[in-house]
Amino acid sequence: MENKIKLYGFNNLTKTLSFNIYDVCYAKSEREQKDYIEYIDEQYNSERLTGILCKVTESIGAHVLNISKQDYDPQGASVTLLISEEALPINLIDKSCNQGQLAMLKSRETVVAHLDKSHVTVHTYPEYHRDSAIATFRVDIDVSTCGKVSPLSALDYLIGSFDSDIITIDYRVRGFTRECDGKKVFLDHKITSIQDYIDDLTLTKYDAIDMNVYQSNIFHTKMLIKDIILQNYLFNTDVYELPPKQRLSITKKLSQEMIEIFSGMNIY
Predict the structure, then answer these.
(1) Mind listing the pLDDT tens digit for each residue in 200-217?
(2) Domain 14-263 falls in which CATH fold?
(3) How many CB atoms lie within 10 A of CB 191?
(4) Most exposed: 71, 82, 164, 243, by fewest CB within 10 Å?
(5) Which residues are 144's β-sheet partners?
(6) pLDDT tens digits for 154-187?
(7) In 10 A of CB 112, how many CB atoms?
(8) What distance in Å separates the CA atoms of residue 257 and residue 268, rounded to the nearest whole number?
């Protein structure tokens, strides 16, 4: 980075990225709905999520100290990583930490990862309602770093790791650090929008809006998929097996579901 700020002591700024995605599916029968939930539960179990978070940690230039994970009954999973900005000497790492060695986790049903001054967490929420033909899968990921590393560099990888119909992203920088002359620094990098950190090709697939509070270093972006290709939303059903009117009706239901989630309110 050019023109780096010369700081006095450690960079105390806390940068937190909250990444929330929704995947929507049409599953008409109760059997199809349960099969979809089981499919999602298997696709995004704690082991796979652990791999995603380890890749996130690597992409932001941090190091894993400890991992904790858990698969839940009837569905869902959680993973937490404790990470450090710099690699720590082995003698300084708490002996209870697994240091990111996944082999140590195979005998455990839960996993949490911790970072030095930082952490990465993920939780999944598959759900459906018996009176609706729409099933929804939600993933919440939080990446919190303290120091020079920023979680924004992991955004493209996170978006690409999930099938996302709706994406909600929050980024906040808290606290302050000091320059050598004592002047406080409340933001150590340029940012006008979270969208600046998302690949242009990805952005063309979504309608995106920003709601930012610049004076508080709070940034918020919501994204809604533009095109609904019906086959991508049918679980164990071929689109050509359905009559045109039913295809139109299903597409309308999917669109309504997405718009309500995107808007954060019941509209229809």
Answers:
(1) 999 999 999 999 999 999
(2) S-adenosylmethionine decarboxylase (3.60.90)
(3) 16
(4) 243
(5) 16, 119
(6) 888 888 888 899 999 999 999 888 888 888 889 8
(7) 18
(8) 9
Q: Residue 84: which of 56, 61, 51 has the closest Cα? A: 61
Residues 81/122, Cβ–Cβ less than 8 Å: no
Instruction: Give the count of beta carbons closer than 10 Å to the beta carbon of residue 224.
Output: 21
What 189-198 contacts at long range (C-beta under 8 Å, 24+ apart), as own/partner pairs, is: 189/1, 189/150, 191/152, 191/219, 193/219, 193/221, 194/152, 194/155, 194/169, 194/219, 194/220, 194/221, 195/221, 197/152, 197/153, 197/155, 197/156, 198/155, 198/156, 198/159
Candidates 167, 153, 164, 163; CA nearest to 198 is 153
Which whole number is the average pLDDT over 24-42? 84
Which ranges constitute the DSSP H helices of the chain?
30-43, 46-59, 155-160, 200-203, 244-263
| Token pair belonging to 80 | 């937490």
C-beta of residue 81 within 8 angstroms of C-beta of residue 114: yes
Residues known to be catalytic: 118, 123, 146
- What is the reported pLDDT for 112? 44
Contact 14, 146 (CB under 8 A): yes
pTM (two decimals): 0.80
